[in-house]
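Entry details:
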Amino acid sequence: DSTDSGRILIEEMELHKLPDDQLSDYRAKRMGFVFQLYNLLPVLSAVENVEMPLLVSGTGSKEARDRSMELLDKMGLAAWAHRLPGELSGGQRQRVTLARALVNNPAIVWADEPTGDLDSETANEIMELICSLNKENKQTFVIVTHAQEVGDLADRIVYMRDGQIELQENNG
């Protein structure tokens, strides 16, 4: 996508000025994405889904596997690493999606309703994990949500309506 107006500045890079190939490379290496509907490949195990971004970017298979297993272990999923997505609960799939988003150690993670389809206990676990990763790894999370309790955990909240910023507030 390209901008209609304004600019996009992340890590002192003007992303809106990058050609498509450099922008794609930047996104693959420095951004992570958490989708509400997971977007896991159903024929790949949890660990294979997590390691995919590393393999695509040229990381060796042993290093990719080790990094992926380390993240799955951090997510409490080491015992389920070789299960297919269809064999996992919603919370487990969301943690696999989060691990995949983090595997390249991105500067920024974009998360679309990361707790949208989860029960409240699992949603709290996911948000606690995101908050701890934000603090420990100094990673930025941009979360789109309709859930007030998710927004309440953010350092900064931007309210939007009809594609326009309506209100911004610092929360922490």
User: Anything to note?
Assistant: The longest strand covers residues 164-170. DSSP finds six helices and seven strands in the chain. The chain has a mean pLDDT of 89.
